Amino acid sequence: MRSGPVRVSVVYPKASDVVQPVDSTFLFGSVGRGDASLTVNGAPVSVIGNGAWLAWVAVPDDTIAHYQLVAAVPGDTQVVGLDARVAPRFHPPAPPALWIDTTSFEPRGVLQWPAGEGVRLDVRAAPGATVRLRTPAGVVVPLVPDTEPGEPSWGIRAFGVDTAMYHLPPRVDRYVGWLAAEPVCPDSLALPPAPCATLEVAAGADTVRFPWPLRIATLDRARPLVIVLNDDTAHTGTTDSLTVGKAVPGGTYHWFFQTGTTTVMSGRWNDQVRLALSRESESWVNAADVQPRPPGTPPPGGVVGSVRLSSGPRSVTLRVPLPDRLPFRVDEDDRSLVLRLYGAHSDVNWMQYGGTDPLVHWMTYRQESADELTITLQLSQRVWGYRTRFEGRDLLLEVRRPPVIDPGHPLKGRVVVLDPGHPPVGATGPTGLWEPVATLAVAKKAQTLLERAGATVLLTRTDSTPIDLYPRTHFAELHDADVLVSIHANALPDGVNPFVNNGTSVYYFHPRSADLARALDRALVAELGLRDLGMGRGDYALVRPTWMPSALTEGVFIMMPDQERLLAGEAGQWRYARGVVSGIEAFLAERATKP
User: Fold this and answer.
1) How does pLDDT run across 208-264, given as a tens digit for each residue?
2) Strands 307-311 and 351-352, how do they pair?
3) Quick check: bond before 107 cis, omega within 30?
4) Are 93 and 99 in contact (CB under 8 A)?
5) Following DSSP, what letter does each residue of 25-69 receive, concatenated?
6) Burial class, 103, CB count within 10 angstroms (exposed 0-12 / middle 13-18 / buried 19+)
């Protein structure tokens, strides 16, 4: 039991934090001693022995939330006022007034779009009104009520375990429409958009209008704009060194384009560029990664000829001759890799094995569509890892040989890279425990246990010097890690109740890593004794490397007072470390007996 003076501290929210406009959220911090009572706006809040506390509180419909915290022991009381900033919400006027939520226009900004291609419109306005958009050309676009159910916040969708929170009623004040792209104030697209289309909301004899903050310039499909993608050669970004492609603007990563990939730009929305990978496939990338080729450059594409395998001591490499540095994607199954080439036509007459390497059982190719070609490698063993690179115009797909694992001593001789999560940034617990400090302590203890079992162990960091994400994964690949595990402590976004959404979870990205994530999750739950939130596929940079199985552990929630206390102590750190080691060992043992 911690003793001392009563001293109320609030770790979240700080003065610089802005709470999202939700019904309820959490506050947490410390009162300095374990026997104090605490109330927040008169409601009692539990305090554990080290003085830490966590409260679930209502958020008023205002830009400031006022909370009074009262901590007391006999003879000593401290009263603290907390004014938390809340992101503003739109407040419609009372009926029958007509209104438009001017913060809700989608899309907004600058759009470059093929002429005639549809643009989805979305806006909030007074329920029951007639809503339409008038363009500079005099076109009138009707907007109709959106009858689909409302969407919960991304935090609830991603982390909430109570599915009742997913069922929201339709938003009667949301309208959607479909605009065939036409020039809308296309001049000076580099300048802040000056709206030229007008939204009208009418009911009876009343009408309100507001300019839609959007400019549209149309693209000519007959004159395609060819572009080249560059990687972050200085590695100043926060994820991979490759140009990442997304299925929606600003969305999650789905493609990983090599330096020099050539393709066609088919649209742009503010800082996001749409690529026409083929007639049927498109991807979005950051505009900063795009460099145009000279006007008149023909679109990339053409015939792919015969391919050849070559064997090496650590890997087998497929060489694919390309007419240009075409965009591609690699998909893996349990025992196969499928290379999809966009803008490619097959003349793969010969598929040479270059010997009888046992790793590749067979190869095949298929023209999936008019300009998408797939080449499949069926492996004799489960996928362990692969990587790709261009050599001139040839694409090389290097398939890693699985390590030979001793079933009796699965860790012996293995190279394991442990990544103590963060810094920069990192979550903080109620008493001030910083995630990077705790994860480094856990990683060092796991290193000790792994080395005792015969593994070679490397840490991506050994002190609190900030390291970006790409150098961590690059470090693991440079050292030919057999396994990469990133160690973290969890937290939640505003609006997700931590009392019902906390526990242990583990994340992976590629199919080959699912068994590693499952083994780690089981081992950590057994060691830590917390609720099993299960494994998940998550788009984290530390689980995206393709050269080895990798997983990211969220063993505890550092924002929970009792779990922060566990993570702060030597005994709890050893428990977390044992869970990591047991999970890695179980994964390797399973691969040794079922290759």
Assistant:
1) 999 999 999 999 989 999 999 985 444 444 345 689 999 999 999 999 999 899 999
2) parallel
3) yes
4) yes
5) EEEEEE-SSTT-EEEETTEEE-B-TTSEEEEEEE--SSSEEEEEE
6) exposed
Residues 257 and 306 in one domain: no
SS3 of residue 156 by DSSP? helix
For 356-369, the three-class secondary structure string (H helix, E strand, C coil) is CCCCEEEEEEEEEE
Compute the average pLDDT of residues 492-514.
95
**Does 60 map to a domain?**
yes
Per the structure, the count of domains in the chain is 5
- CA dist 4 and 323 (Å) reads 74
At 70 the three-state DSSP class reads strand
Q: Is residue 96 part of a domain?
A: no
What does the block give as tokens for 285?
Answer: 């990338």
Region of 567 on the Ramachandran plot (φ > 0 left; ψ -120 to 50 alpha; else beta): alpha
**Chain centre to alpha carbon of residue 345:** 33
pLDDT value at 189 more than 90: no
Look up the CATH number of the domain holding residue 233: 2.30.30
Question: Is 44 buried (19+), middle (13-18) or exposed (0-12) by CB count in 10 A?
Answer: exposed
Euclidean distance between CA atoms 418 and 444, whole angstroms: 9
The confidence score (pLDDT) of residue 235 equals 45
Give me 582's structure tokens. Answer: 């047991």
Residues 498 and 372 in one domain: no
Pick the closest to residue 184 from 143, 214, 209, 220 (CA basis).
214
Whole-model pTM: value is: 0.93
* Listed residue (328, 320, 279) closest to 303, CA to CA: 320
What end-to-end distance do the CA atoms of the chain give, in Å?
Answer: 51
Q: Please state, as a whole number, how many other Cβ atoms lie within 10 Å of the Cβ of residue 506.
A: 32
Residue 561 sits in which domain range? Answer: 415-593
